[in-house]
């Protein structure tokens, strides 16, 4: 029987591991479906910031990226959060 929880975590680790290369930090907007991403993010070694409000996270990440002159990850699982990031 397939362990979907472990499969989700493995995929999240591979995805965020690749995306974390060269990034300055990560901003996480937690949600009920983001547990595998949050756990995988903890293993990247990036500085992490948890921000509840997506718009605030987007502005903080933008400022961080401008200061560091490096990309910053924005992590969310909400369908509307992507729109709020814009």
Write a concise keyword list for the protein shown above.
single chain, 86 residues, alpha/beta, three-stranded parallel sheet
Largest sheet: 3 strands, parallel
* Order of SSEs: HEHEHEH
Structural class: alpha/beta
Radius of gyration: 13 Å
What percent of residues adopt helix (DSSP H or I)?
40-55%
**What are the low-pLDDT stretches, counting only 5+ consecutive residues below 50?**
none
Strand percentage: 5-15%
Mean pLDDT: 90
Q: What best-fitting shape do the alpha-carbon axes yield?
A: globular
User: Distance N terminus to C terminus?
Assistant: 40 Å
Strand order across the largest sheet:
2-1-3
Helical segment count = 4
User: How many strands?
Assistant: 3
Structure description:
The N and C termini lie far apart (about 40 Å). Helices cover about 50% and strands about 15% of the residues. Helix 1 packs across helix 2. The chain is globular. The protein has about 90 residues and is α/β, with parallel strands linked by helices. Strand 1, helix 2 and strand 2 form a beta-alpha-beta unit. It has a 3-stranded parallel beta sheet with strand order 2-1-3, with helices on both faces.
């Amino acid at each position: 029987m397939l362990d979907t929880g472990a499969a989700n975590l493995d995929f999240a680790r591979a995805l965020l591991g690749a995306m974390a290369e060269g990034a300055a930090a990560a901003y996480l907007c937690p949600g009920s479906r983001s547990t595998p991403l949050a756990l995988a993010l903890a293993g990247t070694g990036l500085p992490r910031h948890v921000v509840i409000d997506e718009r605030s996270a987007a502005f903080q990440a933008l400022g961080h990226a401008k200061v560091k002159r490096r990309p910053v990850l924005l992590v969310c699982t909400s369908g509307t959060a992507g729109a709020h990031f814009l």
